[in-house]
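tokens incoming
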């Protein structure tokens, strides 16, 4: 089972946590659609800002969005202009989705709060590593060189116990698709208390799409550590 399911969803509620936190009785589908739209908008608009994650919390008439990024200055902009632009776009997106639902009840305007948190040590986060590998492949760098250099940089991190990087597709423009990977340390996929970060990203090369998958193992998490 551990090898056939996303390592993050396999540990959800035990080691990993939900990215969206809210409760509702009658508006579940509306909130879910809105969350997916917000996440898609932010990842598209802030593609070059090294976005690790987008966390969303809701209360009655407020929406709090926390953006984890390796380049927070790019998001914030000069004098906070970037944050204001994002707020306006999300407000317009919310109004557009509400109007499509054609419900008689008018909803009050959302109070949107956006927080940007800096992420350090890129090599410890699977999303950022996968995006870096995909970007290099799109620039036509040899996949073997990309895999080797990336794995070397990950192995130098103190908090990382193991890592695996896999690419699949028409590698280096080959006529037939193939799959290659490199691995360092251990990746205990069946151990639920193992802290395994996972991400997948597509690389749009001139010869087609190359899939990138990254697993990063950071040790085990026990209940006493979560309580602290």
């Amino acid at each position: 089972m551990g090898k056939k399911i996303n390592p993050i969803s396999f540990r959800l509620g035990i080691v990993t946590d939900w990215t969206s936190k809210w409760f509702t009785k009658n508006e579940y589908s509306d909130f879910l659609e809105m969350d997916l739209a917000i996440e898609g908008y932010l990842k598209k608009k802030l593609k070059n800002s090294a976005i690790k994650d987008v966390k969303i919390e809701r209360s009655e008439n407020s929406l709090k969005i926390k953006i984890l990024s390796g380049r927070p200055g790019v998001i914030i902009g000069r004098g906070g202009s970037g944050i204001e632009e994002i707020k306006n776009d999300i407000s317009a997106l919310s109004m557009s989705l509400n109007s499509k639902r054609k419900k008689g009840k008018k909803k009050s305007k959302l109070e949107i709060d956006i927080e940007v948190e800096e992420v350090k040590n890129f090599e410890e986060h699977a999303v950022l590593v996968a995006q870096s590998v995909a970007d290099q492949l799109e620039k036509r760098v040899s996949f073997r060189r990309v895999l080797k250099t990336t794995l070397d940089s990950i192995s130098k991190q103190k908090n990382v116990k193991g890592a695996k990087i896999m690419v699949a597709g028409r590698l280096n423009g080959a006529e037939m698709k193939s799959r290659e990977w490199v691995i360092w340390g251990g990746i205990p996929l069946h151990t639920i208390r193992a802290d395994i970060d996972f991400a997948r990203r597509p690389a749009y090369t001139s010869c087609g799409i190359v899939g990138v998958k990254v697993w990063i193992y950071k040790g085990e998490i026990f209940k006493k550590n979560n309580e602290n």
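note: Strands lie at 20-21, 51-58, 62-69, 111-118, 162-169, 178-185, 194-205, 208-220.
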